[in-house]
Amino acid sequence: MHRKKRLGFLILCGLILSCLLFLSYSPATSQTLDEVYKQALKEGGTLNFYGTLAQINAAKILPEFEKRFPGIKVNHVDATADKLAARAITEARGGRVIADIFQFALENIVQVYEQGLVLEKLPPEAAAYPDNLKGSYWLASEPIFIIGAWNTNLVKKADEPRQFEDFADLKWKNKLIGEPRDAELLIGMTHKYKSMEKAVSLLKKIATNSVEFHKGHSQLAELLVAGQAAACITCYAHHYPPRIKKGAPVNYMLAEGIATITATALPKGAPHPNTAWLFARWSASEEGQKVYAMGGRTPAHPKVEPVEKTRPEKIYAVTAAELKEFSKYEKIWKEIFRLR
Question: Can you say whether residue 333 is alpha, beta or left, with left for phi > 0 and alpha for psi between -120 and 50 degrees?
Answer without folding.
Answer: alpha
